[in-house]
Amino acid sequence: MRRRSFKALGWVLFLGMILAGSGPRFAAAGEIVFDHFMYLPIVLKPLPAADLTADIVSVPRPYVAGAPITYTVTLFNAGPETSPALTLTHTLPQAALNPVFAPSRGLFNPETGTWEGVTLTAGSRVTLTIAATVAPTATGILRAGVVVTPSGAYDPNAANNRAEDANPTFLPITDALLNPGFEAGHWWQTHYGERPEMPVPQDWIAWWSMDTSQEFGVPEVVRLIDWLDNPVYQGPPARIHTGNRAFTMYRWGKYQGGLYQRVANLPPGARAGFSIYAHAWTCNDDPPPAYSCEDPYSLLFRVGIDPTGGLDPWSPNIVWSEDAWYRDVYDRVGPVEATVGADGAITVFVFGQAKWPLKHNDAYWDDAALIVAP
Question: Which among 296, 371, 373, 301 has a CA at the least distance from the CA of 332?
Answer without folding.
Answer: 301
